[in-house]
């Protein structure tokens, strides 16, 4: 990831309203989180204890799904919610404090260099975190390091976010904007190709601690329909802080053509015309060698 893009992401996640802004994304990130728990064998917990890291936890989507899965078995569950954004951590602390009987803590955590001992967690789960990491493969290796021998590491990564077709259409309608846009979009490939099954498998197989026979990569697809202007704004408004990341490969003239709210309004119009958004992601799980 470029220095400019990394700085923009850091600024975005440091914003005082980031938790409120990001919570609107839960409509998109919750279904894959539940699919991740299913694939990781956590949808119906058995006997024994579970200590789980909700890595790059954001607003705590994975933890909320875990609470539902362990309903009536809360004593078997311990959760650490980690995120590098202090604002996110504070929001998650407040959220988990309202759940009776939950053994959980939220803490600032650099997913690429965790201050956590190795071989600790039964499960390390990262829901749409790695694609915003400056060095996502370092994050993946760290997840495997802190998992117990025989433990499960799981992650979700977008193949196509539901807003991408609207983004493409919106850009195509603005005079002076880049045309045609590359496929995949450049910001998706700066540091990784976690949307690609073969590439993801290759990276996992290259890590000595991974048991390659346990690699499971499945595609997950669902549709959301935006039925009102409020729902459209809820989707598009948080994108404003990310536009400089999405457009960092564009020329100054191209960025200027899409500035002053023109791109955001064009995206909203594209969603009005096609309110059914298709979200595709890869659900990946693997076990650490015992």
TrEMBL record:
InterPro entries in the cross-refs: SAM-dependent_MTases_sf (IPR029063)
Pfam family, one: Ubie_methyltran
Keywords: Methyltransferase, Transferase
GO molecular function: methyltransferase activity
Underlying gene: menG
Cross-referenced Gene3D superfamilies: Vaccinia Virus protein VP39
Cited CDD domains: AdoMet_MTases
GO biological process: methylation
Protein's recorded name: Methyltransferase required for the conversion of demethylmenaquinol (DMKH2) to menaquinol (MKH2)
């Amino acid at each position: 990831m470029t220095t400019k893009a990394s700085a923009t992401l850091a600024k975005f996640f440091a914003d005082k309203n980031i938790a409120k802004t990001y919570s609107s994304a839960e409509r998109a990130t919750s279904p894959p989180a539940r699919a991740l728990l299913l694939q990781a064998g956590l949808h119906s917990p058995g006997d024994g204890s579970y200590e789980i890291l909700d890595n790059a936890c954001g607003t705590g989507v994975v933890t909320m799904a875990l609470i539902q899965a362990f309903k009536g078995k809360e004593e078997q569950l311990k959760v650490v919610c980690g995120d590098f954004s202090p604002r996110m951590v504070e929001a998650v602390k407040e959220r988990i404090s309202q759940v009776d009987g939950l053994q959980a803590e939220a803490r600032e955590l650099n997913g690429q260099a965790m201050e956590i001992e190795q071989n600790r967690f039964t499960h390390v789960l990262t829901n749409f975190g790695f694609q915003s990491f400056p060095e996502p493969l370092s994050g993946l290796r760290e997840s495997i390091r802190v998992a117990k021998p025989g433990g499960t590491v799981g992650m979700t990564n977008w193949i196509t976010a539901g807003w991408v077709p609207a983004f493409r259409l919106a850009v195509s309608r603005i005079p002076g904007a880049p045309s045609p846009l590359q496929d995949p979009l450049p910001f998706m490939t700066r540091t990784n190709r976690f949307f690609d099954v073969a590439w993801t498998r290759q990276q996992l197989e290259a890590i000595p601690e991974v048991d390659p026979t346990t690699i499971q990569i499945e595609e997950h697809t669902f549709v959301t329909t935006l039925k009102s202007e409020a729902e459209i704004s809820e989707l598009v408004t948080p994108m404003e802080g990310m536009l400089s990341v999405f457009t960092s490969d564009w020329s100054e003239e191209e960025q200027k053509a899409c500035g002053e709210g023109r791109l955001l309004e064009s995206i909203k119009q594209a969603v009005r015309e096609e309110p059914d958004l298709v979200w595709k992601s890869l659900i990946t799980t693997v076990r650490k060698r015992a």
